[in-house]
Task: structure prediction
Amino acid sequence: MPTPHRHLSDPRELNALAHPLRMAIVELLSISGPLTATELADRLDETPANCSWHLRKLAQHGFVEEAGGGTGRQRPWQVPGLGFGWDDEHASGSIQERRAAQALSEVVMSRAMDRLREFQQRAPEETEEWRTAQTSNEMVAWLTADELKEMNDAITAVLDRYVERLTEPQRRPPGSRLCEFVAWGIPTYFPGVEPA
Result:
């Protein structure tokens, strides 16, 4: 996968993005390309004024920018680049940075869980092809730190094979749909289970 567009460490930037509507705006602009506040409002079931206010807040931190080609309320907005990286709440850094990073991680994961629940509710409406193509996995395994890193790197490598399709529509095969993968590989803490 290409290096994320930005690495966030300033608590003010992390906090600015750690808002469900702002994250939804950034997601839609990343996936759909330039949109106006009115178009975003229609898709997000919000008011144009509210979307416009949040767009200006995002623009203050460089998360969005005007795309050009519009006037007044019909100004389209775009993301200046794809992807953000930030150190999670356990990384070294100020207490403010760790708290802001944790808040942003929680917003991102909450939105992913909402999309999972929406799919589960709508699954009966899906074709058999799409119902059988989807899966959810959960597992635990005894791994060394090197093995955990190797597994995480392998999963990332598989996902990276398709990342260019997000920004290059001509690479999307007929019949393809936007799909989401959420993965994490972490040490776990079960009561009474100590490292080997």
